[in-house]
Records
---
Amino acid sequence: MGVSAVLLQGLLLGSLYGLAACGLSFVFGVMTIINLAHAEFIMFGAYTTFFMAVILKMNALLTIPFSMVLVGIFAIFIYLVLIKRVASENQLVSLILTYAISAFLWNFAQVAFSSTFRSVPFNLGSILVFGSNFPVNKIISFLIIVFLIISLHFFLKWTDIGKAIRAVAQNSKIASICGINVQQVRMIGFSIGGALAGVAGGLIAIQWSVFPLMGQDLILKCFAIVAIGGLGSVPGALLGGIILGIAEALGTSYWDSTMANVIAPLLLILTFLFLPQGLFGLKERVD
Amino acid sequence: MTENVTEINTSTKISQAAKRVSFAGGLLFFILYVILPFIGSAYLVNLLLIFFIYVAYSEGWNIMSGLTGYVNFGYSIFSGVSGYASAILIIDLGIYWPIAWIAGAVFSIIVALLLGGIMLRLRGSYFAIGMLALLLGVKLLFASKYLAPVTRGGYGFPFIEPVSQTTMYYAAGIVTMFSIFIAYKIITSPFGTRLISIREDEEAAGSLGINATKEKISAFAISAFIGGIAGSIHVAFSNYLEPDTAFSTQWTILPIVMVLLGGQGTVWGPVIGAIILTFIEEIFWSYFPGSYMMIYALVMIFLVIWMPKGIIESLKDKEVLPRTRAI
């Protein structure tokens, strides 16, 4: 494959990684919780798409909104029942909690859905770009992601809820003094993070396969991306995703795919050591 | 004045009583432990062997994460590395098994010192996530083709170690008693106090002249040794060596739940947690073989929200147990 083709593949891959990491970064920005169960939310979205596309025989693209809404609602449930109770404690408690939630979810998936790799039928053929064949569904997924991120940006900038979310992310104490219901905003923020995970899961289901342990690989890539981009920064997550995607595409082409998997944990640790605030990281929070 | 003296006498009596109870309890267990293979079934020996390994894992995790508050999500690295090292030493080099097991644990210490020097400079959450990443990285490394000539790669290999289950049982018992003893010694020592101060307020500890990184690395290395030697026995007992099981997150989740349940930072907390959870595991394993990890995760969720201090600390709060760090 020529270099341009590899770069394009990295871009398409990276956009998906970026969307997956976006939700994680967003949730951290709004509530300083590192949601280790984020990748299992993605898995939830993926299984939703799978079941709707295969069992209900829906068009795979149409299942994406369902994944988004379902995981968003599930996130609200998780927040109200579990996360809200430890939100005031130190960060490590919520880390252990979300780790436990993640462990529960992927073990549940193994029991309920078995470890078989599932795939979602969605093939629109491929087109020739830069001398290589690219599946159309990956390009469509890229377009969906771009549309979503732009919508999210305008949502945060122009709607009242969006402004409330940004206010809480910047300084929750003063936001509450201004009359914003911080608990409610946090719940909505967590739900949006879940919804983004749901869409990412659906798109992953279309492009790759669905299986209970898919979260375990993904969560590390998400962390690597969020570390590179900066915790709390959505554009940072997207950029970090693209960086990782391109790095992995180059790694797979010029080395081999197993070692390309090592890039994410390696980047994560290097970033923690040498650039802990990431590229666009939030400065020290005032509250 | 008289009241103060009486109070001092009472609290000394309580610590002495606590120490006596610990000693008596330990003696009773020791006698039972020695005679069990002669009076009990093979199933019971097997069960206790697993229990001992779990207690050792939990005490090892507790020494690092329970005391310093630095949650080690990559604990399986130590048991896996030691398990691999000891198995390879026994199978490929024919080394006598106790030496191989301890050599494996020493290898774990070296790994801990190398990794710890890097990872322990990170703050709490970053350390936790970084260790999670490292675990995956190490698993990939052991499964990769670069180490395959030594580790046999991703598929692993079956083997029989030249040790009978009864011998493993006795060895595991010794390792467990050793780990509880080390935990007791550390927790009741100034070293333990320094570690706890890191958990409570690292910056304040630093201002008192405590070199937090050095203390953390020491605790990390001790944790690695205990986890390592328990891992050697565990791998010997499993008769199959592959990266997915040796470095499975199960050997991290289990100690975490046991320590959370029993009480982090306490001597006997991990033991209590291990007793309860081994019991639960045996029940669930017979009836719901696939689901017991799910149950563990639920227990972990419950504990973290409603009982984060664990059983022993809660009992101490309710004055049922004396407020001494020896327990």
---
Amino acid sequence: MIELERNSELKNSLKIFFTNPTAVVGFIIFIIYVIDALIVQFAPWLLGIKNPNVLQENFVNPIPLPPSAQHPLGTTYPGIDLLKAIEAAIRIDLAFSLIIVLGGAAIGATLGIISGYIGGLLDDVLMRITDIFFAIPFLVLAIAVGFALGRTYESMIIALIIVWWPLYARYARAQTLSIKRTPFIDAARIAGVRDFKIMIRHILPNVLPPIFIQISLDLGSVMVIFSTLAFIGLIPNASLPELGYLTSLGLNYLQSAPWAVIFPGLAITLFALAVNLMGDGLRDVIDPRRRSS
Amino acid sequence: MKLWLFILKRVIFAFITIIGITFIVFALLHVGGNNLLLSAYINPRLTGPAREQLIQQLTIRFHLNDPIYVQYFYWLQALFSGDLGYTNTPIYSGPVTTAISLFLPNTITLTIIAAILVWIIGIPLGVYSAVKRDSALDHSVRIFSFTLYSMPIYLIAFILIIIFGIELKILPYAFPINSVLASNLPWYKDGISYPTHIILIDALIHGNLTVFWNALLHAILPSLTLALSILAGIIRILRSSMLEVLDQDYVRLARAKGVPEKVVINLHARRNALIPVLTLYGYTIASLLGGTVVVESIFAYPGIGYWTTQAILVNDVGGIMAAALIFGVVFVIASLILDIVYALIDPRIRY
């Protein structure tokens, strides 16, 4: 009986999500990006990519060429085919964003739940710490962390996780506080359930859905920020196809070859846009108050 | 809560946050090794035995052979006495404090112009997309702001450069002033203007309107980029808060009384709708400082952000660490002021 109810609830949620046209468009674009990443990972030859981890440079014809039949999106310096490079770069950017967001969410949710559930001095201290992280612009904090740990892709990932967890800590804490006040937690406590078990069994499942939406929304923002770090030259001697780095390659040809900076940038924008639209739709599913409006 | 108690509490929190920021920066310096701290305090032009001697002096001064918390204390002491070390970048070489006084005014100028632009673009768009809800205008504003929200700030800059700088050729997109014009100015050297270091004000001080106009044109694209990068959030909040206000009884009453629609919207509804927007507005303007890092380096505008990217490219410890401190401290102080101002405007915030 309960199983049936859950099923219909899921069906209902899916119906709400899929009757929202913009959310569906976002979802489809998101899936296309994921499929592209999977193809590049497992069968790069399908897209004509020889080595997905290296940009294929061509020093015979280094100057950017406009879009043509041979190069549908044109080329960028030095003679890199933009379509193939963007296809390969999506895999890298997607993977990096996923690691950063999931890492930040895991650390933040853990600390947020503990902080919100236990409360008191621990809560005060943890929240002051997140305040401090919020005060420094993330770009600057990432620059400083990246500098101390060395300027590589790995250190940039660590830097952005450090930047990102406080957001989730605040989120999870707020959610925990509101659940803590509900009677079923009191009931569990009176029944003698241990605090640790309450946090895992009762609070975590209620904290996860909004966190999940935040993760999907953040994938876009993180990709934007990560590419910005690569763009301003934080990662030297990169040969990896990465969208921000790809944009910076076309920088000197802004006047003669605008496509070289526009297309990699658009690839990021499209993804971020899709993710935002999708997240908006997901929010409608979880928060019934938003549906009516 | 009494107002003074609220202010006192905020000031203490701000102070704790600033100490926390210094701790993070110090911890990062330490992770990178003691040499990093040293190299931030050594004048790069110093070589030979004098340098060795300075290293020894600094080792004693910062107690580098003592436990970490002792080192932190002495470093903090240096910071609060205004000694932030040295920076050595292609655009400036010398004490960090001088660099800050040269570059920060430009960054603040761009931020202020951006704040004004956000206000004059964002308010009408937000208000009218709420008033004309679900119209074609509303939908295009929604698409426009969603797209802007998803764009990396550098792409916004490039699109503006390509449209206004390269295709239409109506706005300049590099440096704070035309270089030919600048070469004839006795009060402008190496991208820095004197005495206030804000070229717009300096031009007025020297009574040179041509330079003022030229500098204003040069500031438009970088400021517009900054403005567009935060516009979406403002429009969204204003739209939903305006919708809420328009639904309230006093607005309905005003309409029923036969008050002209223009007056209802501009006088009755908009004022109240702006309160939640003000909060967001203040904080996003303060957070714009991060965006200046990218924008100033694209437009070669000599502000703190441009200096930061230059410092990154040449591994300049003094510059990077100072940038992290400056951006953090400026943000904390800005939000402190905002908190106090809001408490004065809206007594509910105090509780």
---
Amino acid sequence: MRITLRLERRSEAAICYQLSALSYQLSAKKITETGVTITLNHFSAAAVFALFASIVFGITHREDTRDMVRYGLYCFAMFLGGVLVAGWAMWVLRR
Amino acid sequence: MANSTTERSKAVPAQNLSAMAVLAPAVGWLIPGGGHMLQKRWIRGGLLFISIVALFLLGLAMQGRIYKANGGDILDILGFVGDVGAGALYLLALANDWGQGAIAFATADYGTKFMIVAGLLNFIAIADAYHIAIGKKK
């Protein structure tokens, strides 16, 4: 009984996943016909975010130009490093 | 001697609280980086403008959601506060009814966060423009 239920749940999850993937493809196609749509993957979204946030942090948190550049680069490295560490941590936890 | 020094240090902030201290944050809110440009920090202002505007526009292009004024869920209120920070960009998005579509795919949620963060970064830029205006920062 338990095994059957688990199997049913798994197949439901698989169907849901396939449906969401299909709706994603359809919606992406529909939107691109009407306007500008950018679809970034997880890493590129994080990289873009890190770049712009680091520029603002660098400018606003330091006094001299040299310190601004240094702090901006430090923030960028920390953002991306954090993303990579978190990504690998999740990969390890999932196994 | 000690008294005169104390009096002088108290008087300095009052002198520095000029029209610029009000104008720079106001312009900075409306146009990201505008507060810096107003004080002739052209490169800083330009970089702030590019960063914040790019983040906001990318959020819109990723089909992110714009929060309207609301009194409901705390996260919605905070989302609204973040979005408002983007100033003219937020007003423009509201006027054109951008960012109101149903979220169609997973990464659209990143777009919503991009726009909130753009507003929050602009708040930091506003504070920085104010500090320059009062002479606390070069």
